[in-house]
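Entry 14. Structure prediction run on the chain below.
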Amino acid sequence: MTKKNLFPPFLNADSDGAAVDALHILLCALGYGGEIKRDRNYGKMTVAAVKRLQHHLGINEDGNFGPETRAALKAKMGIDVELIPGSKDHFADATNFVGPETPEGETEQWLPEYDE
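Output returned:
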């Protein structure tokens, strides 16, 4: 088995699960959390917080935590979410999201494998 990072390639409105919880923590730590509730749901407050982060990064403010946002976060703030591993606790909880490659409304699941 391989170890995968906690974040799937794409998080967006209505995503839920462990990766969304980690995103909430990251946004709050960076000062963009505002009124986010750590409920593992990528709701309106999370979209607004990601848009604030995207504005600061000088990129398209679409509210999605995808490749463009991740690359800008790494380049401009030195934060590489690819290096944030999941813990044993996270692996019991899949992250659900609608990916850019999936048919509209079809949910994908991200459940990293864990090698003890």
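The beta strands are 95-97, 108-110.
Filed with the rest of this week's runs.
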